[in-house]
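REVIEWER CHECKLIST
Item 1: Sequence provided? yes
Item 2: Single chain? yes
Item 3: Sequence as submitted:
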Amino acid sequence: MVTRLRLYTAPDAEDDDRPDPNVRVRLGDLLPVAAAAQRMNYLWLKDFLDDEVVVTDDLYEVMEAFRASSPTSA
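Item 4: Structure as written out by the authors:
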């Protein structure tokens, strides 16, 4: 099943009761932890699956192109 990336639009301030993110993490630090948690099926990861992540326009374009190319090995 192919998952389509969704473009995030920030909600209005009064509609959002979640705290603002205040920690910056390098993608290179985040990915290995998330991948290991997914591979080992850690339940805590499921708590964050609906959280949204902000990425730069160029990273989004690369991810879309990568997804569209349907690589046979990753």
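Item 5: Key structural point noted by reviewer: Residues 61 and 67 are 10 Å apart (CA to CA).
Item 6: Recommendation: ____
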